[in-house]
Design goal:
The complex is a heterodimer of chains A (401) and B (336).
Chain A lengths: L1 H27 L34 E6 L6 H21 L6 E6 L7 H9 L4 E5 L4 H14 L3 E3 L15 E3 L4 H15 L5 E5 L3 H14 L3 E6 L8 H10 L3 E5 L2 H13 L5 E4 L6 H6 L7 E5 L8 H11 L7 H16 L5 H9 L3 E2 L4 E2 L13 E7 L2 E8 L1
Chain B lengths: L1 H14 L5 H6 L1 H29 L6 H18 L12 H36 L4 H23 L14 E5 L2 E4 H23 L1 H11 L1 H6 L4 H26 L9 H15 L4 H22 L4 H15 L15
Antiparallel strand pairs in B: 1-2
The chains are: A alpha/beta (401), B mainly alpha (336).
Chain lengths: 401, 336
């Protein structure tokens, strides 16, 4: 016992000293605009729509659903969203005694091959009038036409692959900006804020990773000095790391999810590659910070998501309910659920009416201005933010305009 | 439309250099060393497949879970020692060695026990009823899934957060390769473990029993060898080696403890065993190291997305010319 306590103390001391030195390292390289004093995080918009509505809604036997990873691949990203949805439903049901909306959960494990079966189950559940999901681009692509055929509207709070909106699905809505915004913004951050002249782009083999990497590469042009490919579930990256090391880039952009991103970052760091690592929204989760060990403190993230730090009321309610801080896309999940819940309150209790409701929706959400164009993209493209790691937490860095 | 055009554009860009010999040559040593490091982990796991196959002619697909239970054991040992995810702690050498030794012992015990339980619960009842070989194979796949789901229900889908005791540091360089302390530890310790296993099977009384059962179970039983005990022993030895592999794996990849994390590694290790000659201890070592190195060079030549393809094309090629693997099946062959 005593031994363990001493060791723990040692570890803490070592961690503290490392954290300190990491901070120093960052201020050293910090002539670059990547570390300029930050703009304040946006506060909760006063006119944001509310899931509780006016409290007088009447409805019965109606449900909304969340579909996506709950315990499967990159589960943390799905749970962030699901918790946001749960919070919205709870607030709605607490306020509206005569309108108890049921939340049904469907586990796709984040796997594109499994999504169509699960979504088929979902569209056959008649009470469901709207869906928050699917979180990932690969599964969204695989299952989008099933939603379309059944006329069941879906609002994805996090799938960013631009091509998803090009399929002609009438039921697809995206609650955030896509990678045609994130890609160029990431390129801008890499070259202007971080001053990188040579960038390595690493992509995984998911729909999302490939699409985003393409957008980033296109925007970077000839500043891309190497383009490495990795596979989903890969945990060993020595060949890729060696190739990156040989290319001597100033920065590395990892286009994929945290599950592979964390060991990749750690192995890159271990091999002594000093390039600045930047990851996208799929990596931006506290699971990455805890997984990447020494490498985490040196990572930046890009994300078409609004920092939630200013949303103190939301964060407080979230913490009360789940005993942890809101994560990436918790706010987006909450917003998407609110769109559906307010639709139900307004009497849109079948799929057809709900679809019309979403199409005509026009209100300020917590995260973005919500209102969609014909393809299901947000009419007002939200900005992309960058984030960094501080004391084991992901905090906002700068907004890319 | 835009999407299609840009993929075509990228395809065109890459088509003029689909085979990248420059990277291969420039990074030859770096990739060889990296491959040896990961390959020695393959080799240790491959030994478990090979031993069980040699004795029972059973492809024990649940061996990948025997391995991953060792990885969890390693993680929990670190955790219970008071370490937490985050930056690597600074430890005195003596302390570090003590902790790692403790972790390897725990991991080996847990993996060994898992293998033993697996044998008792899943395979023995089948043997007692004289089930056909196919039933064993299906049971192995089923057992693999059950063991995975137990971990899943208990720990969830995310990998355990990385805990690491030893930060890799470069000691010296050979050509393009930086040799790190971790690489040396993993390669040397794996080869030592293999040597111990090889000596055990070829030089000890128990080993003679294993070889006897592998050669001819009926005759061995008639000669007074307790077949059931030998089978148990074989599973345990395979499990112990997988436990050791698990520690090395967790030192290299601290994010490795994930419920399905053994699957891909198991397939690779199985391929390594077949490549070297399944049922052959030397073959497992050779196959593992070779597979690790070739995977890396394959990625340098063709790109990271071809990693698994290269490995399996190689396996197919070898099996076309040497159906029993590079060194052939030998555990069951009589040897002086």
């Amino acid at each position: 016992m005593a031994r363990a306590r001493i060791t723990a103390a040692l570890v803490l001391a070592a961690a503290a000293s490392l954290a300190l030195s990491a901070c120093e390292a960052r201020t050293d390289q910090g002539g670059s605009a990547g570390n300029e004093p930050q703009a304040d995080a946006p506060a909760e918009p006063a006119n944001a729509h509310k899931p509780e509505g006016d409290g007088n809604a009447k409805c019965s036997n109606v449900a909304i659903a969340y579909a996506g990873t709950i315990n499967g691949e990159n589960a943390a990203l799905g749970q962030n969203i699901l918790n946001g949805v749960k919070l919205a439903v709870k607030k709605h049901n607490d306020a509206n005694k005569d309108c108890q909306v049921e939340l049904k959960e469907f586990e796709t494990e984040g796997v594109p091959e499994k999504a169509p079966g699960i979504v088929t189950q979902m569209v056959n559940t008649k009470e469901i009038v709207g869906v928050v999901g699917l979180p990932f681009s690969g599964e969204s692509k695989a299952a989008g036409n099933i939603f379309d055929k059944a006329g069941l509207p879906q609002i994805s709070p996090s799938a960013t692959n631009p091509a998803l909106a090009e399929n002609g699905w009438k039921t697809f809505f995206r609650g955030l900006g896509n990678d045609n915004a994130q890609g160029p913004a990431a390129a801008k951050f890499l070259t202007e804020n971080l001053g990188a002249e040579k960038v390595c782009v690493v992509q995984d083999d998911s729909e999302y990773g490939i699409g985003l990497a393409e957008a980033v590469k296109e925007a970077l042009g000839d500043k891309v000095v190497c383009n490495e490919k990795v596979k989903t579930k890969q945990k060993e990256f020595s060949a890729v790391v060696q190739s990156i090391k040989a290319a001597q880039p100033d920065a590395v952009y990892y286009s994929g999810y945290y599950q592979e991103g964390a060991p990749f970052a750690q192995q890159l760091f271990d091999a002594g590659v000093e390039a600045q690592l930047v990851g996208p929204d799929g990596v931006k989760d506290v699971e990455y910070v805890k997984g990447a060990g020494d490498a985490a403190a040196e990572t930046f993230f890009t994300c078409p998501c609004v920092p939630g730090e200013g949303f103190t009321k939301f964060a407080g309610e979230y913490r009360d309910m789940f005993d942890k801080d809101p994560g990436t896309y918790s706010v987006e999940g909450y917003d998407a659920a609110t769109v559906l819940l307010s639709g139900i309150d307004a009497g849109n209790t079948d799929r057809k009416k709900m679809l019309e409701w979403i199409k005509n929706y026009d209100a300020q959400g917590l995260s973005n201005k919500l209102g969609w164009d014909d393809k299901g993209e947000l009419a007002e493209t939200p900005t992309v933010w960058t984030y960094k790691v501080e004391n084991g937490k992901i905090v906002r860095n700068v907004e890319i305009k | 439309m835009h999407h299609v055009v840009s993929s075509a554009h990228i395809l065109a860009q890459e088509s003029d250099s689909w085979i990248n010999t420059d990277t291969f040559i420039d990074l030859f040593w770096a990739n060889t060393i990296g491959g040896l490091e990961y390959g020695s982990i393959y080799a240790l796991i491959a030994l478990g497949y090979t031993l069980v196959y040699g004795v029972l002619k059973l492809l024990n697909f649940a061996h990948s879970e025997v391995f991953i239970y060792g990885a969890y054991a390693t993680w929990f040992t670190f955790f219970l020692l008071g370490f937490r995810p985050g930056p690597t702690p600074e430890l005195a050498t003596g302390e570090l060695i003590a902790f790692l030794l403790l972790a390897v012992v725990v991991a080996m015990l847990v993996s060994g026990t898992t293998a033993l339980v697996l044998e008792r619960v899943a395979y023995r009842p089948l043997r007692n009823r004289g089930a056909p070989r196919l039933a064993f194979l299906i049971t192995a796949i089923g057992a693999s899934l059950v063991l995975q789901q137990i971990l899943f229900l208990w720990r969830g889908g995310n990998a355990e957060q990385a805990i690491r005791l030893l930060r890799p540091e470069t000691l010296f360089t050979v050509g393009s390769a930086s040799i790190q302390n971790l690489t040396i530890i993993i390669v040397v310790a794996s080869i030592l473990m293999w040597l111990v296993a090889d000596t055990f099977v070829n030089r000890t009384r128990f080993g003679r029993g294993i070889r006897a059962v592998a050669q001819d179970p009926e005759t061995a039983t008639l000669m007074g060898v307790n077949k059931e005990r030998i089978i148990m022993l074989t599973f345990v030895v395979g499990g112990l080696l997988a436990g050791a592999a698990a520690l090395f794996y967790m030192m290299k990849i601290p994010q490795g403890a994930q419920y399905n994390g053994g699957f891909l590694l198991g397939i690779k290790a199985f391929a390594a065993a077949v490549l070297g000659g399944i049922g052959n201890l030397r073959g497992a070592l050779l196959g593992g190291l070779l597979l690790g190195v070739i995977e890396n060079h394959g990625q340098a030549l063709f790109g990271g997305e071809w990693r698994d393809v290269v490995a399996f094309v190689l396996l197919v090629l070898v099996l076309m010319f040497r159906p029993t693997g590079i060194l052939g099946e030998s555990l069951g062959k009589a040897r002086v």
